Amino acid sequence: MADMRALIWDLGGTLADTYPDVDRALAMVLDPRPGRELLHEVALLTRRSSSHAISTLAARHELPEQELRRAYEQTKRDWQQAPPPVMPGARELLAAVRAQGGLNLVATHRDRDSATDLVERLGLGIDDMVCAPDGFARKPDPAMIRALLERHSLAPQDCLAVGDRPADVEAAAAAGVRGVLLETAGIPLEAGDAERVTSLRAMQSLLELDGE
Question: Pseudo-torsion of CA 80, 84, 87, 93, nearest 10°?
């Protein structure tokens, strides 16, 4: 994809490895010492969305949603002191896109303060970001991706989007952008015939990027 002008990223779960902390925080509301089975149950839900996980777990385990919501919000506050790690391969891919004159753009559901803090603490070299709470519909609606295309005068065919949830690739497709789903090992996701990778390092060959 030599003519690619921009890579449109999701943030949590794609650039930042947020799932382990979120899964454990929610699971610990149900069991202070969660086992592998419970963590897997939670992971199956968070890969759709955190809100879906919270509402489903609350109903399934007969708990107030607010207890799970508090745990989730506390995790985000904890990241202000100890942010989650960068996803393996992310820095290299960001650098490779930049080295070839491309833009690294982010479309995230996270609120702007939280997203900006996470990006800055992790030292991620991105060029622009849109956040759903700024007034954009959430994915799979393509509004955020279309906003980035318009801001930077980008043609959809010159971009690629990568995200860890089916909604990410659905939003990309709706905007006419090629989407790639970053899968979590052992977590099946229904995403039709979307392209899939199991690591960001696999994106290097997919995009024909050599890196720095």
Answer: 20
Torsion angles phi and psi, residue 64, rounded to 5: -65, 135
d(CA 123, CA 183): 24
Full DSSP string of 46-71: HTT-HHHHHHHHHHHHT--HHHHHHH
Enumerate the β-bridge partners of residue 179.
161
What sign does the dihedral 173-131-118-51 (CA atoms) show? negative
| Enclosing H/E stretch for 166 | helix 166-174
Name, in order, each residue with C-beta under 8 angstroms of 14's C-beta and a sequence gap of 6 or more: 87, 90, 162, 163, 164, 168, 182, 200
Residue among 11, 17, 9, 2 at smallest CA distance from 177 = 9
Which has the closest alpha carbon to 156: 148, 168, 164? 148
pLDDT tens digit string along 7-48? 999 999 999 999 999 999 999 999 999 999 999 999 999 998
Please report which helix (H) or strand (E) contains residue 9, including its range.
strand 6-9
The contacts of residue 182 (CB under 8 Å, 6+ apart) are 13, 14, 87, 162, 163, 164, 196, 197, 198, 199, 200
Which H helix or E strand runs over 154? none
**Residue type at position 178:** R
Task: Please measure the distance between the N-terminal and C-terminal CA atoms of the chain and give it in whole angstroms.
Answer: 17
| Residues whose CB is less than 8 angstroms from the CB of residue 141 and which lie 6 or more positions away in sequence, other chains included | 171, 174
pTM above 0.85, yes or no: yes
